[in-house]
């Protein structure tokens, strides 16, 4: 279920519950069943959905509430709290500071949207007055990064001829530190699978550039399989934050978000389109409030 559809289904279920003349167990259960069904269709893990229902029923004990209580509000609040809980990793991410050079290394599988996301991240910060720069440490992807960077007027570094990509990353970071850039973004190689060579390359780039933050970029279409993918990357490199791409078109987006939260890795942005500004900060409460309820 794509994000807008999921939000529509959850809001409708809550609205129908709120419009009932009398709020009893039946009405509440029907509302929760509909929300659960919608979440399962978005590939949220079954256990998470079941726990959410159990918790809401525990928080809202209709028999203990006197007539004076606003049962609708209490149920709505419990639903909000539980949706936030499912999507909240409970752990903040390192946040770079404007004016202080930070190296941010991007990792992820090929096709996940990594290069596009490096540029979106740079552009987002540039619009807020930062001095970002892009370094391509990735075979065959320099042209793509160069094109995006040129369009967005962001300085970039890469090489068509140097085959030692670790060296390219090192040189790029060195240059932009000298030029007083405060956000040095390193795009790294991505393979189709989680092969050992991908992890080895990541290690070497991390050794050479000493990133302040490693961001794992992931395509939302894999849904709850994100759990295993994030864990695999975390075992190889110290992933400090996650960006989930293609939240605009995929049925399993919220499943992916909840799976990443379950790995206790903070999601900091989501990609919601191909353009450089189709990118938004991910913050659990506003996301649930605006997109799901
Ligand atoms: P990489 O191989 O991981 O660097 O992936 P790319 O950055 O080349 O992106 C792969 C494709 O996904 C491109 O066609 C991008 O335009 C597209 N893409 C990236 N992010 C998003 C997003 O948030 N939404 C949509 N719809 N497409 C995206």
Automatic annotation (TrEMBL):
Residue span, Signal recognition particle SRP54 helical bundle domain: 2-87
Subcellular location, record wording: Cytoplasm; Endoplasmic reticulum
Biological processes, Gene Ontology terms: SRP-dependent cotranslational protein targeting to membrane, translocation
Single GO MF descriptor: 7S RNA binding
Chemical reaction(s) catalysed: GTP + H2O = GDP + phosphate + H(+)
Alphabetically ordered keywords of this record: Cytoplasm, Endoplasmic reticulum, GTP-binding, Hydrolase, Nucleotide-binding, Ribonucleoprotein, RNA-binding, Signal recognition particle
Gene Ontology, cellular component aspect: cytosol; endoplasmic reticulum; signal recognition particle, endoplasmic reticulum targeting
Domain SRP54-type proteins GTP-binding: 101-293
Free-text comment about domains: The NG domain, also named G domain, is a special guanosine triphosphatase (GTPase) domain, which binds GTP and forms a guanosine 5'-triphosphate (GTP)-dependent complex with a homologous NG domain in the SRP receptor subunit SRPRA. The two NG domains undergo cooperative rearrangements upon their assembly, which culminate in the reciprocal activation of the GTPase activity of one another. SRP receptor compaction upon binding with cargo-loaded SRP and GTPase rearrangement drive SRP-mediated cotranslational protein translocation into the ER.
Its job: Component of the signal recognition particle (SRP) complex, a ribonucleoprotein complex that mediates the cotranslational targeting of secretory and membrane proteins to the endoplasmic reticulum (ER). As part of the SRP complex, associates with the SRP receptor (SR) component SRPRA to target secretory proteins to the endoplasmic reticulum membrane. Binds to the signal sequence of presecretory proteins when they emerge from the ribosomes. Displays basal GTPase activity, and stimulates reciprocal GTPase activation of the SR subunit SRPRA.
Assembly information from the UniProt record: Component of a signal recognition particle (SRP) complex that consists of a 7SL RNA molecule of 300 nucleotides and six protein subunits: SRP72, SRP68, SRP54, SRP19, SRP14 and SRP9.
Family: Belongs to the GTP-binding SRP family. SRP54 subfamily.
Name by which UniProt lists this protein: Signal recognition particle 54 kDa protein
